[in-house]
Amino acid sequence: MRHRILRPPYCYRWAVLISALVLSVSIIVSICQPGAEGSPIQPTPPAAATASATAAPAPDLLRHTAGQGKVVALTFDDGPDPVFTPQILDVLARNGAVATFCMVGTQVRRHPELVRSVLAHGMRLCDHTVNHDEDLAKRTEQRVTAEIEGCWSDLQVAADADVPVGYFRAPGGEWSQPMRDVAAREGMKPLAWSVDPRDWATPGTARIVSAVQQGVQPGGVILLHDGGGNRAQTVEALGQLLPWFVAQGYRFGFPG
Length: 256
Ligand SMILES: [Zn+2]
Prior knowledge:
It is built from nine helices and seven strands; from the N terminus they run H-H-E-H-E-H-H-E-H-E-H-E-H-E-H-E. The protein is an alpha/beta fold. The chain folds into two domains: about 5-30; about 45-250, Glycoside hydrolase/deacetylase (TIM Barrel, Alpha-Beta Barrel). Strands 1, 2, 3, 4, 5, 6 and 7 form a seven-stranded parallel beta sheet that branches. Strand 4 (about 165-170), helix 7 and strand 5 (about 190) form a beta-alpha-beta unit. The longest helix has 25 residues, at about 10-30. Zinc ion binds next to strand 1.
């Protein structure tokens, strides 16, 4: 009968006691570790980008650099463009800067040599869909898949090699869950930004420069354009911004 010391009522009481203990320990641990749920410190994103980030079981939209400290990631959308992409590559090279190019499939097919040039300059590629349909967020998953995988294939064909395409950026920054799912399936990170100087609207070189200087924080991702229109202002702004970044102690990196 010695083995019956722990009769059912005692077992029950022990079970209750142990679960209460486990519960209180886990509460104490969670109180003592604020921020342990994995939200990394990020620069404050612009309101528009925050609004589009609300969907989310998929990974968070990327709007910070891989490197810590005073790093900035430049991103160029809607190219490659035969006039402006080479000019931008020149300015970047002169200032020892790197950038990520979010390319559109239709442009990639027209100018495959520019994809190779961008890669040869040590830059990274980002998939920006085949047709840059700004209403892609409203389309079916099948359509989304064709647009994203199509651009990815265009980049591989243009590079004439297996090139890594580490990022996907939604046309117009308009995201949908299928876009995030397809990008994740293809191993591409969903790339947003933290600073939008609206260079696409050609507001004047001085305004592009000041918007970046005022908006940037360490770890920032800057949205610029090498395609989709006349980007002379963007090229000129870069000529001022890149030396300014260097003087401020910034390094150039990639989103991550
Ligand atoms: Zn775009």
